[in-house]
Automatic annotation (TrEMBL), chain B:
InterPro entries cross-referenced by the UniProt entry: Cbr1-like_FAD-bd_dom, FAD-bd_FR_type, Flavoprot_Pyr_Nucl_cyt_Rdtase, FNR_nucleotide-bd, MRET, OxRdtase_FAD/NAD-bd, Riboflavin_synthase-like_b-brl
The protein's name in its UniProt record: Ferredoxin-NADP reductase
Domain FAD-binding FR-type intervals: 14-115
Family annotation (PANTHER family): NADH OXIDOREDUCTASE HCR (PTHR47354), PROTEIN RFBI (PTHR47354:SF5)
CDD domains registered for this protein in UniProt: FNR_iron_sulfur_binding_3
Length: 196, 254
């Protein structure tokens, strides 16, 4: 197909989904300016389909038990980064005691960004609100002070500058999903764009 | 004639299109424009991007995203590629791919970093290095549509030699009414320029941008640090964050 193209010869990497290449640094991709959120103003709101709300201030959030996931991350623009280290609160912890029959979650961010996922993809140790990367505070351009981390889906689902999650009975596409990207975004099935 | 641009959506025909390289143009010592012919291409909007995919003899594949640098023109699309030292794909695109060769294309992709010519708001384009590519697609689309929407471009480059589309930008400023171009040189300033070499700063954006009261749309594209700096300044100058659209790239080491 591409005469003379060799590609970068490297050992087979079983943790690399199809169509991805490894990167050592940490590219930044966002659609607008980096929001700057002060920790005193920061809050996280979880609302259910009935309108019931749970709120956490910065101090309240980080008084909860934290976990230190080490995970691989995969960006739809084809880069993957293996073995990244984070610290944060499991979504299971935030959902504990929340009464909901919702199937869907719409995540929203400071700055107006949104993304949607099935609620099941946020449960059972699959997702966190993280505020540290590699042992240090999460830099603003990577979503600090806090972002969602859902490593089993393409990274646009891991909303930066996360502000809250709204649970609902119906699926509501978010920012990139309404711009032609796949509704679910499984890297192993290369669900990049609508129709994949 | 399939000239219809899809407003921010991928065509139903998902998957890869086979394209042929029909022309290449050197832009700088390290960048060139590839003109590809894609049968049945559905069109695209200025600012959208495409994925290009290469396949080695043993089936190994590598894909990368590139902004389109020219507006829709029948079955032709143009991408402008900067050679990434030690890169996996860009050196092949610049040196390995010959006119007549085939390559796979996917897209168009992206419904956000686009200029729609129905929008009357003035436009500020701020490009760093190869970040000019999607902005050039907007400048060319404006010209092609005969639009009078006021455009300003601030283009940050290391030196005069690093300006992409240099001749065309000179022509456009002369011929396209309502287009202004200002350069910021970060390493080496031409003799004719009174300014010193510097990284883009508040004064550049204040002088050559639009006042926030005019509610311009600001498009910023370049390396991460550049985009962070420019978008922070624009917001600090009073521009509504939603009117500051950004496209960041690299460094990704590939």
């Amino acid at each position: 197909m591409s005469p003379g193209f060799q590609g970068r010869r490297r050992a087979a990497e079983p943790n690399l989904p199809p169509g991805q290449y490894l990167t050592e640094d940490f590219p930044v991709l966002s659609a607008g300016p980096t929001p700057r959120v002060s920790l005193t103003d920061w809050e996280f709101v979880l609302s259910t389909e009935t309108g019931a709300e749970s709120r956490w201030s910065w101090d309240e959030m980080w008084a909860l038990p934290t976990e230190t996931p080490m995970v691989d991350i995969h960006c739809v623009t084809h880069w993957s980064k293996l073995g990244t280290n984070w610290r944060g609160v499991s979504i299971d912890t935030l959902l504990d005691g929340v009464d909901t029959a919702a199937d869907y979650a719409l995540v929203h961010s400071y700055g107006g960004y949104t993304t949607n996922l099935p609620l099941d993809d946020l449960r059972d140790g699959q997702a966190w609100i993280v505020h540290q990367y590699d042992g240090a505070d999460l830099p603003a351009e990577h979503g600090g002070p806090a972002r969602l981390l859902v490593p089993h889906l393409y990274f646009w689902k891991s909303a930066k500058w996360v502000r809250g999650i709204r649970l609902g009975l119906t699926d509501e596409p978010g920012f990139w999903e309404t711009a032609g990207y796949h509704d679910y975004g499984d890297p192993w099935r290369e669900q990049r764009y609508q129709g994949d | 004639m399939a000239r219809t641009a899809i407003p921010g959506r991928l065509t139903k025909r998902a998957g890869w299109w086979v394209a042929r390289l029909v022309e290449r143009r050197e832009e700088t010592a390290t960048a060139c424009t590839l003109v590809l012919e894609v049968p049945d291409w559905p069109g695209h909007l200025p600012g959208q991007h495409v994925d290009l995919r290469l396949t080695a003899e043993d089936g190994y594949q590598a894909a990368r995203s590139y902004s389109v640098s020219a507006p829709a023109d029948g079955e032709r699309i143009e991408v402008t590629v900067q050679r990434v030292p030690d890169g996996e794909v860009s050196p092949y695109l610049i040196e390995g791919l010959s006119v007549g060769d085939q390559i796979e294309v996917r897209g168009p992709v992206g419904g956000y970093f686009i200029w729609r010519m129905t929008e009357p708001a003035p436009v500020l384009l701020v490009g760093g290095g190869s970040g000019i590519a999607p902005l050039m697609a907007m400048i060319r689309a404006r010209r092609a549509a005969g639009s009078r929407v006021p455009f300003r471009l601030i283009y940050s480059v290391r030196s005069e030699r690093d300006i992409y589309f240099a001749d065309e930008l000179r022509r456009r400023v002369r011929d396209d009414q309502g287009l202004d171009v200002a350069y910021v040189y970060t390493r080496e300033v031409p003799e004719s320029s009174p300014a010193r070499a510097h990284r883009i700063a508040v004064a550049d954006l204040n002088t050559h941008g639009w006042p926030p009261q005019l509610e311009p749309t600001n498009f910023v594209c370049g390396p991460t640090g550049f985009v962070e700096a420019v978008s922070d300044i624009l917001v600090a100058l009073g521009h509504e964050p939603r009117r500051v659209k950004t496209e960041r790239f690299g460094p990704t080491g590939a």
